[in-house]
Amino acid sequence: MTAIQRDRRFYILLFLLVLVLGSNALLYRSPLTSQVLPADANWVVIGSLIDLAVVAPLLILFLKRKERITVKAFIAWMVSGLVFARFLIPSAYFEPFTYVPLAAIGIEALIVLAELGLVALLIWRLPGIIRWIKSHNESLLFSLPSAVEKRVGNHILLRVIASEFLMFYYAFASWKKKPSAGEAYFSLHKKSSLIAFYIMLIHGIIIETAAIHWLIHEKSVILSIIMLLLNVYTVIFFIGDIQAIRLNPLYVQDRKIFVSLGLGKRIVIPMEEIKEIKWEREAEEEKINPKETIDFIAKDFETLPPHCIIEFKRPLAANLFMGLKKNYTKTAIRLDEPDRFRALIEDQKKI
User: Fold this and answer.
1) What angle do CA 334, 337, 341 make, to 5 degrees?
2) How far is CA 130 from the centre of its chain?
3) Which residues are CB-neighbours of 14 under 8 A, at least 6 positions away?
4) All residues at 6 or more sequence positions from 246 whose CB lies less than 8 Å from its CB, including other chains
5) CA 140 to CA 147: how far, in whole Å?
6) What single DSSP character describes residue 323?
7) How far is it, in rounded angstroms, from Cα 305 to Cα 285?
8) Measured distance CA(207)–CA(260) in Å, rounded
9) By C-alpha distance, which of 175, 167, 152, 133 is closest to 321?
10) Distance between CA 184 and CA 35 in Å, rounded?
11) pLDDT of 92-111, one tens digit each?
């Protein structure tokens, strides 16, 4: 019933958005425009500006209900709406309001400058970030984002920069490092075909780049360069992801479980936040809901069940691709040595 209500709400919002955009388009770009609009149409134009700069952006943001609504997102859509209004409304009617899109673009420019200021602050505080990382005996995959957050801030731009740095670091600067090993370390990928699958994808992308790039290059140089850059970025990401998987096994330290599977997802689970752990058959039989459970199961050519499902006392934040964060109430994990991991966790719970 809830799903039906959500779908109904989505279609109602979509209908209202189409109605707002369509009515304004008909008002200014139809054969009846000159007959419908009065000579002094300032109030009509003001109403259209409100529609395109306020109402339509709000409808779009509510349609994208999976994303958190922020002031920055609203301003970005508002600027887009005003720029669209400038092209939609004929110059004869829009002339008294030509300053409005320029003012909105100016606000957006100030936001961009503020974000560039954050980048400058990040560079300024880089020595302190490096010292913080060295003082904490954690994997760089976990320590770098935490250091940036504590020393600079939690802005999404900073998280994206940290995520991109990790990708390039693991792709190009981590080849001399060896995977951490010991009683508290547990690999997740060695008994799967995940690495082989990634290598196969990289080979496929390289062959596709070599074959298609020259074919498209004859028709559109710009498109061929864009596709080449995207393919190069994808290969770098896959290489970095492989290295991150190899060099960052699950580990238990300071009564916390640090678990990751490449660059795309990671979470820190304090032992005191564990409500319940289901093992083996009980974990295999539980249906995993991706909205509330983050899984750390190395992809294989067949779907494999988890060895354990850990339920939290409260939702915990997980770091995802490109610095995104999402709260989960459970995690499903598949390990290469599940029995040894279970023994360690049960010993930790006794302390």
Assistant:
1) 85
2) 25
3) 63
4) 179, 189, 195
5) 10
6) G
7) 9
8) 30
9) 167
10) 78
11) 777 777 777 677 677 667 76
